[in-house]
Design goal:
Blueprint: E1 6-7, H1 17-26, H2 45-61, E2 68-73, H3 76-88, E3 94-99, H4 102-111, E4 116-122, E5 143-149, E6 151-152, E7 157-158, E8 170-173, E9 190-194, E10 205-210, H5 227-232, H6 242-257, H7 260-280, E11 287-288, E12 299-303, H8 307-319, E13 322-323, E14 334-337, H9 344-361
Parallel strand pairs: 1-13, 3-4, 3-5, 5-8, 8-9
Antiparallel strand pairs: 2-10, 6-7, 9-10, 11-12, 12-14
Helix pairs in contact: 1-6, 2-6, 3-4, 7-9
The chain binds pyridoxal-5'-phosphate (PLP).
Length: 362
Amino acid sequence: MANRAYNFNAGPAALPLEVLEQAQAEIVEFEGSGMSLMEMSHRGAIYEGVHRETEDLLRELLNIPDGYKVLFLQGGASTQFAMVPMNLLKPGTVGAYVATGSWATKAIEEAKLFGETAVAASSEADQYKRIPQASEIALPDQAAYLHLTSNETIEGTQWQSYPDTGDVPLIGDLSSDILSRPLNVSQFGLIYAGAQKNLGPSGVTIAIIREDLIGKPAGAVPTMLRYATHAKADSLYNTPPTFAIYLVNRVLKWVKAQGGAAGVERVNLEKAGLLYTAIDGSDGFYRGFADKDSRSNMNVTFRLASEELEKLFAKESEAQGFSGLKGHRSVGGLRASIYNAVPLDSVRALVEFMNDFARRHG
Ligand SMILES: *Cc1c(COP(=O)(O)O)cnc(C)c1O
């Protein structure tokens, strides 16, 4: 496809071209059924096959051990900010959070609506340029869980390894780096991720929850907002977002064809390496936002000497076919989101543009 943009959008984000073309071929008639997948019952054998296969693929690619339920939910990761405390924060316990940036802060603010919270570690004093060390984390007594944000999509920081929380369940918002690298699910009590960064389109949120955490919530929780409801019904309690789950299925097959989590990680490291090398080798023309040891391999954030120059970069890059390079409105600067489906060639083209821009404006 000649006119495909160099897509660096933060989310919804690039999808593999092969997956889009496959969806196009399958959209009117699905597997000889005489109708689109979107037109058929979620209780029928054909959709159910897609649903089960999608779960199986997630289990395989993320190496999810027995004892964990995989759920397909709605309401985005933002609804998980509420579902986590509604289901897991019992009276007399404390929801502990690591404050790493914009998304972690939203999770904390939401949890405050439902119970007692504590900030177990924070990098706010460093403008969220870094991920706290494990040794900085102070778990409160009676911690119900420790919540962390694996990849801060807006600031461009990423946990390189997760802390050991002992008996306290670790909860991870992995929205922007799930399946970008191998994962040890057994370190977590609960993982959740909106699909629209690494897994597919918006509209479905994946949750992976350890079965012992699924019990009855302490307070009155709406049926749709209880993990137990969806766990018991295999995510078919009500109508799931069937088309979004189907697209996740096709993206997962694509990931499998790339060699799974380890295969996409190799390419992700190469892509991130190219961009950070361009930034670090620019004699200060580009300045990486995050501390080096906290840098994200998914969202590369950087600044230029002035906001005017950043505006010019955004404008010129857009005119040359690059999309989504303007930083989030809350922090400014520039950001290249390089999720799994962003091709290496798009990154090579961006590096070339960056070098050229620096020559012309340096
Ligand atoms: C995008 C994002 C969210 C919000 O996801 P929605 O699906 O829009 O609610 C939450 N956390 C992180 C880390 C994200 O990147």
